[in-house]
Write a structure and sequence with these properties.
The chain is an alpha+beta fold. The protein contains six helices and 17 strands. α2 crosses α6. The radius of gyration is 18 Å and the shape is globular.
């Protein structure tokens, strides 16, 4: 029988962070079965650890509605679950997005995980697409942070980066789910990364996630990595840098993501967080 674990990532408290399903032995499961399990679990993503055929690991990610190329919080959850059973160390994971490494460390009885993304990149958002995106969010252009040009950023999955001019604008999230879902499906965007910069190294984020069948993702590792690449590429942070992302607070599920941004362009972005098993 397939063992399905449930963990919270980016929090040491199961009442915070982002819940993820984890299957540490998905050998023999076909696509239909994995999709069915993810739908039954009902979290934004479930990670399935597989054999990559070369003595290493592969991992696949399913939301309740579809397979995704990469998911950060489910990677963190899976790595901590694996380390609790097999000891901390390094895993090299073959994902649909490419090779992702994740290391785990134990301290004072708690395990944290650090993933390093595929090389990030970003691209401009067309003005008409930005207009449709803002309309779906019920935002105006005056709501945008002029110091953060809207771009779509990638570190395993594509996420538009939209800077909010104020914390209050970020806190007031009420969007047209059908309109946003259609726009995101057309462009293969995974979440919308809405951010407000408290300072150069402290960020607050929210991530609408209609493609996954949920209104909002509580803590999004892939979007955090994409944001790190965006900040480096646009010289919006002095590198090397470490930034802290607060996400989930407005949902009542606070999470904490630590993002390390190396100086060299094209190198992967590291995202660190805790994870803990959810009560039965």
């Amino acid at each position: 029988m397939t063992q399905i674990l449930r963990y919270v990532a980016f929090s040491a408290d199961p009442r915070g962070g982002n819940p993820a399903g984890v299957v540490l032995d998905a050998r023999g499961l076909d696509d239909e079965t994995m999709q069915s399990i993810a739908a039954d679990v009902g979290f934004s993503e479930t990670a399935f650890l597989t054999d990559d055929g070369n003595g290493g690991f592969g991992v696949r990610y399913f939301s309740p509605l579809a397979e995704l190329p990469f998911c950060g919080h489910a990677t963190i959850a899976m790595a901590v679950a694996h380390a609790e059973r097999h000891g901390p160390g390094m895993l090299a994971l073959t994902t649909r997005a490419g090779l992702v490494t994740v290391s785990t460390t134990a301290r004072d009885g708690a395990i944290t995980a650090t993933l390093t993304s595929v090389p990030p990149r970003s691209a401009a958002v067309r003005d008409d697409d930005l207009s449709m995106l803002l309309a779906a969010l019920d935002w105006d252009r005056s709501d945008l942070d002029p110091g953060m040009p809207p771009r779509v950023a990638y570190a395993g999955a594509w996420h538009p980066i939209i800077g909010a001019a104020s914390r209050g604008r970020l806190a007031d999230l009420a969007y047209n789910m059908a309109a946003l879902a259609a726009l995101m499906a057309h462009h293969d965007w995974t979440t919308i990364n809405l951010v407000w910069r408290e300072s150069a190294t402290v960020v607050h984020a929210r991530n609408p996630f209609p493609p996954g069948g949920v209104f909002e993702d509580p803590a999004t590792g892939a979007a955090a990595a994409a944001l790190g690449g965006y900040l480096r590429e646009l010289d919006l942070v002095t590198v090397p840098a470490t930034i802290t992302i607060h996400q989930g607070n407005d949902m009542g599920r606070p999470g904490l993501l630590t993002v390390d941004i190396p100086a060299e362009l094209g190198t992967g972005i590291s995202v660190t967080g805790a994870a803990v098993a959810m009560p039965d």
